[in-house]
Amino acid sequence: MYAGGTDLLVRLRKNPVNPFPLVCLGQIKELKGVRESPEGAFIGACSSHASLLSNPIIRYAFPVLAKGLQVLGSPPIRNMGTIGGNICTASPAGDTLPPLYVLDAVLEIRSQNAVRRIAIKDFIVGPGQQRLNKGEILAGIWLKNDPDFNIHHFEKVGQRNALAISVASLSALLKVSESGIIERVRLAWGSVAPTIVSPTNVEAALKGHFLSKDTLQKVMPLLREAISPIDDIRATAAYRRTVAGNILLRLLASFPYKEGYGT
Ligand SMILES: Cc1cc2nc3c(=O)[nH]c(=O)nc-3n(C[C@H](O)[C@H](O)[C@H](O)COP(=O)(O)OP(=O)(O)OC[C@H]3O[C@@H](n4cnc5c(N)ncnc54)[C@H](O)[C@@H]3O)c2cc1C
Q1: Which atom of ligand 1 is nearest to the CA of 8?
Q2: Does 183 share its domain with 243?
């Protein structure tokens, strides 16, 4: 089974096992497009990254996802690759995953006779591993509107600016008061552990504090404990650790931060 084939066909070329019958889901109308729901939106699993990037609901209601999609692969990959394929591949470097984690995405899984829903954080269990049973497909993704957040941040660090698999990435949603206090926060790092890392203790430690360099630096020990990066061809574990912390500090660039807040 495949949708855009940008992951599966590459894998089959490297490891040519007999994949047949190979069913393409990519042209099933019901699995494509974005529909508004009373609470938010439903994204069909076979929607291409490019179609989502140009969708007004995604751009305006879920900008953190749009930011992730914008840096995924290259135009041909964004035209062929789908959000469902990115989720089911379950790579810790999947660019839509950190945004979907901070958005608390819920996945709709369908089989011939049943429909079930599961939170993305419970669906992905390891690199390349997810809880899809035989005979099931991912039909789509439910997202809830949450207009409360006023910072929608996504940052990806790779070996180059374009067509790069991430070395580390961070997705963040924050509600920061006019005086600079972090009232709500959701964080998710990619490429620094076997799956996406969304450490609730780091979020709790930030809540109620001023968004400042000092506050962000104070949670670094908790972040270092939460992640378990590996050495691979793209980066060393030590480099990934440093970058994971540095991209948290870059949150400051997303807020009209003034030195002196909280003093
Ligand atoms: C050159 C290149 C650059 C890339 N760059 C990036 C990048 O920067 N960031 C990034 O995140 N990814 C990148 N990728 C990986 C890939 O393009 C994405 O993961 C893409 O979203 C996969 O979607 P797809 O529809 O092509 O998946 P497919 O290859 O069609 O499927 C992938 C896997 O998911 C399963 N699957 C797909 N859809 C469903 C469904 N609806 N229900 C159940 N199972 C399903 C398939 O069985 C298969 O196992 C890159 C790939 C290439 C070749």
Answers
A1: 29
A2: yes
Q: Which domain holds residue 137?
A: 17-144
CA of residue 61 to ligand 1 center, whole Å: 24
pTM of model > 0.90: yes
Ligand 1 pocket check for 40: Cβ under 6 Å: no
CA angle in degrees (0–180, nearest 5) for 154-72-55: 80
Structural domain contains residue 178: yes
Q: Is the distance from the beta carbon of residue 138 to the nearest atom of ligand 1 less than 6 Å? A: yes
Q: What is the CATH number of the domain that holds 77?
A: 3.30.465.10
Number of domains in the chain: 2
Let me know if residue 262 belongs to a domain. Answer: no
User: Six-digit token pair at 226?
Assistant: 């939460």
Residues 6+ apart with CB under 8 A from 226: 193, 197, 199, 201, 202
What is the pLDDT tens value at each position of the chain, 263 positions in all?
899 999 998 888 888 777 678 899 999 999 999 999 889 999 999 999 999 999 999 999 999 999 999 999 999 999 999 999 999 999 999 999 999 999 999 999 999 999 999 999 999 999 999 999 999 999 999 999 999 999 999 999 988 877 888 899 999 999 999 999 999 999 999 999 999 999 999 999 999 999 999 999 999 999 999 998 888 888 899 999 999 999 999 998 877 655 555 44
In this structure, the strands spanning 115-119 and 106-110 are antiparallel
